[in-house]
Design goal:
single chain, alpha+beta, outer membrane lipoprotein receptor (LolB), chain A, Glutaredoxin, 2 domains, 13-stranded mixed beta sheet, five-stranded mixed beta sheet, 6 helices, about 45% strand, disordered N terminus
Length: about 375
């Protein structure tokens, strides 16, 4: 009896085996996708010291998501506020500093919204290729709005990181992440390194940290929380015209290979291709299909095809079904559904637009290839 009690106590006190560090990092990147809804608030702090720099920046941000098609992101800094809101029919991008906004007939992908929307610098490197080592350095419990989360601490050391578009190099970089054991969510991280700037002899010491200040998993979020009303003094502007919201640099480049569900891009070489990338739960995508069917009847020499995240809808043209982890979405920087792409006869991307397009706009995209 007593032996059994001691054995159970020993088992209860035994430490859980450590996970493999790189696997844990990979799991944390996708962990948030398993929640149907969430609300997350965080603070990003950036410090730059050296080469006559002494800069400190804090950026509070919040994100609320209700899958599949509701999203609200707000980020604040000394420069102003950035808002991204999807209500199931439209997505708005608003920059308070300019008092301007873009309205897309599209729904957003929350996990891709910030990374692919153009709000971050273009052509950032794939840090995976710069990793020298990843290891678990210990365990720590952190407090998020009064809730205790036991975490693994994971340290990643990097080799030289080249950022040619920004004309800088990052050296001696180390990132530490606090990943919750139960949820596998990265709740806190720090990134430190030295920056070599073009034309500056002295390196700049950089420190960036992200700290989660609020986390609610699977909360009940109402439609009213995903509404954007432009301020009275704000003006609507054309897509891709807001500073920092840049169209992906894909036009003129080869379309990626893709073959599935009756769609084979390589086999269509020699033909003009009109490609619609949508999602099964996307209302603007369903409306776009009817227009594509009309164009298919009017333009028999154009190969009209579709790709759908989730179940493919019925249509008179082929639509392949994929899941949201398909590499094609990353290769084409898809963060809005639908996205329309024109591929020329040589297999290069000739036109790229996010959001549902009018018939006039689609015909104009195709007409570029006749000039």
């Amino acid at each position: 009896m007593f032996r059994s009690g001691f054995l159970l106590a020993a088992l209860a006190c035994a430490q859980a085996p450590q996970p493999e560090a790189r696997k844990l990092i990979a799991e944390s990147a996708a962990a948030i996708k398993k929640y149907q809804s969430y609300r997350l608030e965080s603070i990003v702090t950036v410090d730059l010291r050296g080469a006559r720099m002494d800069n400190h920046l804090e950026m509070p941000s919040s994100i609320s998501v209700r899958r599949p098609d509701r999203m609200k992101i707000q980020s604040r800094s000394q420069a102003g506020t950035v808002n991204i809101v999807s209500d199931g029919e439209h997505t708005w991008f608003y920059l308070s500093a300019l008092k301007k906004y873009v309205k897309r007939d599209a729904v957003g992908s929350p996990e891709a919204a910030v990374g692919n929307s153009g709000l971050l610098p273009k052509n950032l490197p794939d840090l995976e290729h710069s990793i020298k080592s990843t290891r678990i350095t210990g365990e720590e419990t952190i407090d998020v709005a009064g809730v205790k989360y036991p975490c693994w601490t994971v340290e990643t050391a990097y080799g030289q990181i080249l950022l040619p578009e920004q004309h800088l190099v990052i050296r001696n970089a180390v990132q530490t992440s606090w990943i919750s054991k139960a949820e596998k969510l990265s709740l806190q991280n720090t990134f430190r390194g030295e920056i070599d700037l073009a034309g500056v002899s002295e390196p700049v010491r950089m420190s960036q940290s992200t700290r989660t200040t609020l986390l609610r998993l699977n909360p009940k979020l109402l439609d009213s929380e995903f509404v954007f009303t432009p301020p009275a003094n704000a003006k609507e502007t054309d897509d891709w015209t807001l500073p920092g919201i840049a169209k992906p640099d894909l036009e003129g480049k080869a379309a990626p290979a893709f073959k599935a569900g009756g769609v084979d891009l390589a086999a269509l070489r020699g033909k003009v291709v009109l490609l619609n990338i949508g999602a099964a739960w996307c209302a603007p995508c369903r409306r776009q299909i009817a227009l594509f069917e009309k164009l298919r009847a009017d333009l028999p020499d154009v190969a009209i095809i579709g790709i759908s995240v989730g179940d493919a809808p019925k249509a008179s043209f082929p639509i392949a079904s994929i899941d949201d982890s398909n590499d094609l979405l990353t290769a084409l920087s898809i963060n809005s559904y639908p996205t329309v792409i024109v591929i020329d006869r040589a297999g290069n991307i000739a036109a790229y637009e996010a959001g549902a397009q009018t018939e006039e706009a689609l015909r104009a995209m195709l007409a570029k290839l006749d000039k």
